[in-house]
Amino acid sequence: MFKELLANEFVFPLMLGFVFGILCRINLLRTDYRQYPTYPHGKIIHVSLGVIASALGALAIPALLKENYTAVTFLTVAAQQFRDVRNMERTTLNEIDKQELVPRGGPYIEGIAMVFEGRNYLVMFTSLVTTSAMILFQWWGGVIAGVIALAIASKLKSGKTLQLIVEVEKAPLRVEGKDLYVGDIYIMNVGLEESQKVISEQGMGFILIPKDANATVTIAHPGQRQAILHDVATQLGVFTDAGEPSLTPLVKRDLHTGRLGVFLLPQVKDQERAEAVIRAVPILESVFRMPQKTNAAKQEV
Amino acid sequence: MTSQILAVITLSKENIAGGAPIFIEPNKEKMQQTAFTLEKILDAMVHEVSEDTLIVVRHK
Question: Which residues from B are below 8 Å from A191, CB to CB?
Answer without folding.
Answer: 35, 45-48, 54-55
